[in-house]
């Protein structure tokens, strides 16, 4: 199996940008000291994108994090839009 480290790094960076600049349930995008807050979710989302998970699976993962892990009151429409953006990364991969 050939591993393309640049492609993987680019995908991880794209996921991270979406999580921090678009998803951002904790409202930390303008706080540099908290910029790593969403990094723990990168491996799972990366794996979901690489394994061609459905948009609804991506949504459910994000929704669970927002509501159960972060204990935030999520906005289903917003989270659905983020899942769609992440799903689009599959097409670029």
Explain what this protein looks like in three dimensions.
This protein is mainly α and 93 residues long. The chain has one domain. It is 65% helix and 0% strand. It has four helices and no strands. The protein is globular, with a radius of gyration of 13 Å. It starts with a helix and ends with a helix. The mean pLDDT is 91. This is DUF1871 family protein.
Oligomer: single chain
Structural class: mainly alpha
- The tally of strands reads 0
Tally the helices: 4
How much helix is in the residues? 55-70%
Low confidence ranges: none
Largest sheet: none
Average pLDDT, to the nearest integer?
A: 91
Q: Name the shape in a single word.
A: globular
**SSE pattern, N- to C-terminal:** HHHH
Count of all domains: 1
List key phrases describing it.
mainly alpha; globular; 93 residues; DUF1871 family protein
Q: Summed up, what is this model?
A:
The chain is mainly α. 65% of the residues lie in helices and 0% in strands.
């Amino acid at each position: 199996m050939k591993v393309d480290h640049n492609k993987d790094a680019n995908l991880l960076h794209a996921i991270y940008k979406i999580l921090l600049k678009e998803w951002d349930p904790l409202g930390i995008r303008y706080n540099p000291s908290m910029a790593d807050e969403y990094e723990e979710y990168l491996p799972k989302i990366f794996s979901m994108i690489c394994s061609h998970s459905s948009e609804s699976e991506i949504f459910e993962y994000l929704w669970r994090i927002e509501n159960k892990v972060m204990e935030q009151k999520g906005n289903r429409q917003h989270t659905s839009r983020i899942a769609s953006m992440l799903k689009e990364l599959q097409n670029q991969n």
